[in-house]
């Protein structure tokens, strides 16, 4: 079937709730309204109010409740309306969900998913546009997944729901409805921790994920560059091998991400390449990122978001040396 990213989210939830009675969905406005982006539309009608639940406006309660239910044997899928609302629940992720397996020496685990739309580009208000995957990837025991296509969205969300440990599932709302492609019907699973090569090339490796994939591919096409484009898909665990092998082939690399530059995921990618492929590099690795500021409001977002011209500038810089 043809579907957008937000429709793929909905399809994955319908499929997994139909397959496993332990899967429950809850969050702000997910039941009666079907979610602010309609990602949970019609779940209430199909699965009832005991499995699809509207919660109070309390991210601490949403994530903490999910952790408790997961330890008790359920497979909760908690929705945070926007990624900028998750910081109040940071303690629940760090203190409970991510480390309960370690704390109990494997006696308990927290098989739960926290879904949230992330990123800029939709002219949203403050606390609606953050891209903080780097901060959450720093938490041991928490997996961080960022899809960029409808098919991967369904497959990775399915894998996240079935995973025995907590997964933070970050959905690129900027491209929620701008990409439509064929999505497998029925059960479809994409392994967490495996990157995808979106375009093969010989001259430079370009690494991106989530909402950065369309502008990255556009930059490569517009520039006529023989670039290999890698969609990381999983921030933690990270598929270092795919990135390193590509860099060994091309000798050059550009990392593009929406989040702030300092201590961003790009820094970790650069470090891993330096650890494992330093002698293959023909030029310094370039980073094209957001800035070390809060995401500006409304039309000022255009100056923050790494658009194709900025990405192409980074590619050309890597090729120039």
UniProtKB/TrEMBL annotation:
Keywords linked to the UniProt accession: Oxidoreductase, Thiamine pyrophosphate
One Gene Ontology term from the biological process aspect of the record: organic acid metabolic process
SUPFAM superfamilies (UniProt xref): Thiamin diphosphate-binding fold (THDP-binding) (SSF52518), TK C-terminal domain-like (SSF52922)
Domain Transketolase-like pyrimidine-binding, chain residue ranges per copy: 3-178
One Pfam family this sequence matches: Transket_pyr
Top-level enzyme category: oxidoreductase
CDD domains given in the database record: TPP_PYR_E1-PDHc-beta_like
Domain of life: Archaea
InterPro entries: THDP-binding (IPR029061), Transketo_C/PFOR_II (IPR009014), Transketolase-like_Pyr-bd (IPR005475), Transketolase_C (IPR033248)
Keyword set includes Oxidoreductase: yes
Gene Ontology molecular-function annotations: oxidoreductase activity
Gene3D superfamilies per the UniProt record, alphabetical: 3.40.50.920, 3.40.50.970
Cofactor(s) this protein requires: thiamine diphosphate
E.C. code: 1.2.4.-
Keyword check for Oxidoreductase: yes
Protein name: Alpha-ketoacid dehydrogenase subunit beta
């Amino acid at each position: 079937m043809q579907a957008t990213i937000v429709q793929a989210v909905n399809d994955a939830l319908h499929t997994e709730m139909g397959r496993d009675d332990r899967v429950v969905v809850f969050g702000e406005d997910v039941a009666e309204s079907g979610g602010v982006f309609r990602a949970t539309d019609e779940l209430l009608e199909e699965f009832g109010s005991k499995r699809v639940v509207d919660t109070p406006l309390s991210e601490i309660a949403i994530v903490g409740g999910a952790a408790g239910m997961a330890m008790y044997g359920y497979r909760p899928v908690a929705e945070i309306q926007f990624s900028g609302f998750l910081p109040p629940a940071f303690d629940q992720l760090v203190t409970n969900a991510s480390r309960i397996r370690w704390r109990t020496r494997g006696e308990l685990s927290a098989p739960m998913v926290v879904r949230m739309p992330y990123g800029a580009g939709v002219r949203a208000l403050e606390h609606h546009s953050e891209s903080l995957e780097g901060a959450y990837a720093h938490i041991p025991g928490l997996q961080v997944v960022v899809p960029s296509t409808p098919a991967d969205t369904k497959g990775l969300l399915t894998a996240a729901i079935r995973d025995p440990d907590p997964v933070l599932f970050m959905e690129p709302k900027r491209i929620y409805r701008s990409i439509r492609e064929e999505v497998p019907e029925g059960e479809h699973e994409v392994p967490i921790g495996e990157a995808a090569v979106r375009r093969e090339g010989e001259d430079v490796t370009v690494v991106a994920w989530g909402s950065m994939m369309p502008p990255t591919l556009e930059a490569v096409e517009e520039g006529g560059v023989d670039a290999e484009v890698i969609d990381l898909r999983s921030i933690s665990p990270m598929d270092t091998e795919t990135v390193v092998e590509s860099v060994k082939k091309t000798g050059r690399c550009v990392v593009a991400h929406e989040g702030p530059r300092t201590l961003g995921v790009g820094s970790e990618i650069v470090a891993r390449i330096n650890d494992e492929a330093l002698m293959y590099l023909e030029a310094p690795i370039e980073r094209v990122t957001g800035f070390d500021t809060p995401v500006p409001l409304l039309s000022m977002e255009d100056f923050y978001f790494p658009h194709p011209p900025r990405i192409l500038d980074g590619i050309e810089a890597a090729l120039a040396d």
